[in-house]
Design brief:
By secondary structure, the protein is of the alpha+beta class. It has two domains: 2-253, no CATH class; 256-421, no CATH class. The chain contains 16 helices and twelve strands. It is flat, with a radius of gyration of 26 Å.
Length: 429
């Protein structure tokens, strides 16, 4: 790292560690319709009685979580909108008693989710198990945990009781520092002081060797009252998998003044290329907010994309940002493949939000033609024609929404792709 070597006399130390970590928990056998049918049969549940059984199970789980929270001295707050900033509310509750450990706050809200259910097969005229997207109540349980620090557990209250766990890597590391007698100070989500960086880094590196899934098993057993029956019937509990992970390197400077001077220079150098791009402001006014660009230099090819602020507890917002980012990256990669001659000349390729490209190719300017071809290529990359047709052949009524979710793109991208290929689909009402 050149910056560390260059400014070594001004730096106290360097720490590389995990930041945001999101882990999903699934009861794998309950994700499959055939295995879910086995579960119901094993527990003497008739398909005709499934919905009353499922409601009973959900009610029982909700009562258990309500009782669990009450035993912890926490009232569960119902949120009418899943977009409500739950972390902010939870931290406000924590600020009233910062020394408190365990459950700090609890919320419930109705959100979209993937569930197992029983449906009628109109062809066979029989009932069968199936996976469907619907809405159900979710609980968010926020903790100041003795092992992981600030974290939350999210659980859906309908089959298959999917779980999401959020951990802050630096919070987790701070608990390990406490156990290993390392003096430190935190400022928001960073370490402003560490008395032994070498020892701290060794502890951070050792996180990779720790098996933390057993801790999650213990936590979820306190929450999901149905786990004993599931484990007895299916022979296993939750399978934990990594959904999101951020890894960051913090550089701790000796003096704020040194960092201020260096930071200003770094930013100026990093953004100097924009000063010569006179068309940027003009295009922002015409096409909307800048969300991606390609910058080619003699040594490197750089792709930039806008990092949108996001509420991690809002699944719809997470999916929207994910889809937008994926298309931006695919779009910029398209420029690298299709328009290398422009990039070699120092041409800055921008992608703008909400841009409208003239559908009549005869009336497009050069920029709009480049953008149009990049959009087509991005569509080909994210939604391959052979895969799309393969899926369409298997579906009786291919809906725009289901196809969008399957290929992890927005409905607008999927619509454009289907229209471009002249394929039929159903628009969700």
């Amino acid at each position: 790292m050149n910056i560390i070597e260059h400014y070594s006399d001004k730096i106290n130390g360097v720490l590389s560690t995990f930041d945001r970590i999101i882990i999903n928990g699934y009861i794998l056998s309950l994700q499959n319709p055939r295995q879910f049918l086995f579960y119901l049969i094993s527990n003497s549940v008739k398909l005709l009685d499934f919905h009353s059984f499922a409601k009973q199970q959900t009610d029982s789980l909700c009562l258990h979580i309500d009782s669990y929270a009450n035993d912890c001295g926490v009232d569960i707050t119902y949120l009418s909108s899943p977009k409500t900033n739950k972390d902010e509310l939870a931290r406000a509750a924590f600020d009233k008693d910062p020394s408190r450990t365990g459950l700090i706050a609890a919320f419930s809200s109705v959100e979209l989710c993937r569930t197992m259910t029983v449906v009628s097969n109109h062809q066979t005229l029989k009932l069968e198990t199936a996976s469907r997207q619907t809405k159900c109540k979710h609980y968010y349980l926020y903790y100041n945990d003795v092992e992981f620090g600030w974290m939350f557990i999210k659980i859906q209250t309908w089959f298959s009781y999917n779980v999401q766990i959020y951990i802050n890597g630096r919070e987790y590391l701070s608990k390990l520092f406490d156990k290993n007698n390392i003096n430190y100070q935190m400022y928001h989500n960073s370490f402003s002081f560490i008395d032994d960086f070498d020892k701290a880094q060794k502890i951070a590196n050792d996180i990779l060797n720790k098996k933390i899934s057993s801790s999650f098993d213990g936590m979820i057993k306190k929450i999901n009252v149905h786990l004993p029956v599931i484990e007895q019937t299916m022979g296993h509990s939750y399978y934990w998998c990594l959904d999101q992970c951020e890894f960051a390197t913090d550089i701790n400077f000796k003096k704020r003044e040194d960092l201020s001077i260096i930071y200003k220079k770094l930013v100026e150098d990093d953004l100097s290329f924009l000063e010569n791009a006179s068309h940027v402001q003009e295009n922002i006014k015409k096409y909307g907010e800048l969300c991606g660009l390609v910058l080619a230099t003699k040594e490197d090819l750089n792709i930039f994309y806008k990092k949108y602020p996001i509420d991690l507890t809002n699944d719809l917002e997470v999916k929207s940002v994910r889809n937008r980012t994926r298309f931006t990256l695919a779009h910029e990669l398209a420029h690298c493949v299709l328009h290398a001659e422009h990039l070699e000349k120092g041409y800055l390729e921008f992608r703008f939000e909400n841009k409208k490209i003239n559908k009549d190719f005869r009336k497009r300017n050069e920029y709009e033609n480049l953008e149009y071809s990049a959009n087509i290529y991005a569509g080909q990359l994210l939604v391959p024609e052979h895969k799309l047709k393969e899926v369409l052949n298997k579906l009786i009524m291919p809906s725009l929404k289901s196809l969008s979710e399957l290929f992890t793109v927005s409905s607008n991208v999927m619509r454009a792709r289907l229209d471009y290929l002249g394929l039929e689909y159903v628009v969700d009402v």
